[in-house]
Hints:
This protein is α/β, with parallel strands linked by helices. The chain is built from ten helices and 13 strands. Helix 7 crosses helix 8 (255-265).
Amino acid sequence: MKAKIIGTGSFAPEKILTNFDLEKNLDTSDEWIFTRTGIRQRHVAGDDEATSDLATRAAQNALEMAGVSPEELDLIIVGSITGDFSFPATACLVQKNLGARNAFAYDVSAACSGFIYGLSNAELYHAAGKARKSLIIGAETMTRTVDWKDRGTCVLFGDGAGAVVLETSDGESGILSTHLHSDGSSWELLYQPGFGSRKLPSVEGREGPYFLKMQGNEVFKIAVRYLSDVVIEALESNGISKEEITLIFPHQANQRILDATGKRLKIPLEKIFSNVASYANTSAASIPIALDEANRTGRIKAGDLIVLNAFGGGFTWGSALIRW
Ligand code: UT7
C-alpha cells in the first residue's frame, strides 16, 4: 500500500516585506539580497497570527482540493520549529481548529526538513494500515525567530504554511520512497537558543540569546552537498534515471543553493522548482508551499515523477520520490 497525495494547499500572511522595506532600517540593499539569495520579498505574520493559524488555512485549502472532511482524518502531523507553544503541539491546535476529532496529532521538529520527516512518518502509518487519510503540514513563523538587527540572517526568512492530504492507495501513483538523515555533530552552525532547557528564559523576553544563529557560508556548502546527495539516493534506490524526473522541489533556502544543487546533479535548472523570490526561506513550509504552487498552476500532472529534497538545522536532510 502507498500513501498518495490527493490535495495540496498553502497559505501566506497578507503582510509583505520587500527588500526595499528592509533597506530603510538595515545596512543592506535589494541588490545585495537579490544577488546573494534570489529573494525579493517575504510574508510576515501579523501580531494576531500564530503558526497554527497559518497551518489551519493551508490545511483547509488542501482538504478542499482533496474533497476530504476533517472528520475523515486519522492523523495530523505538523513539521515546525516555530510552534505556537512549547506544548501543546501545534498539530493539536490545528486538529481543534479544523474539527478533526478522529485524528491523532503531533509535531515533528526537524527544522527545514520538518515536512519531509512528517511525510515519511505518515507514509509508514499508511503502509501499516494505521491511517487511511492523513494531513501533513509544514508551517512556520520564522520572522519571529530572527534578530532584525542581524543582516546576515533576518533578510533570509519568511512565514507561511503548506499542506498535503494523503490517502492510502494501491495504484501506481503515490510516495515511492522516503529517505531521512541526521547529523547532530555540527548543530551549532544553525540553531536558535530560544527558550529551551539550555538557556534560562529571560524576563525581558526576546534578546540576544533568543534569536536564530547561523554560520551562513558553512551551512551553504553542506546544504548543496546533502540536497543533491539525497536526490541521487532516491533515484538509485528506485532504479530511476534523472531524465525521468519532471521536477525537483528542493527546500527553498536561497536561489544560489538551488542553482548549485542543480549544477552538482547535472540537472537543467528548469527542472528545479523555485519560488524563493516571493517567500524567502519558510523552513518546513517551503516544500509544501512550492508543491501547492506547482500543482495549482499545472506544472505537475498525473504520472509525473517528482522529488522533494530538504535540508535544515540539526543537521537533518531527506527526500521523497513521488509518482503524481
Ligand atoms: O535552510 C537552510 C538555511 N540556511 C541558509 O539558507 C543559508 C545558507 N547560506 C546563505 O544563503 C549565504 O551564506 C548567505 C546569503 C547567508 C550569505 O551569503 P554569502 O555570499 O555567503 O556572504 P557572506 O556571509 O560571506 O558575507 C559577505 C559579505 C560580508 O561583508 P564583508 O565581511 O565581506 O565586508 C557580510 O557582512 O556580505 C555582508 N552581508 C551583507 N551585506 C548586505 C551579509 N549579509 C548582508 C546583507 N546585506 N543582508
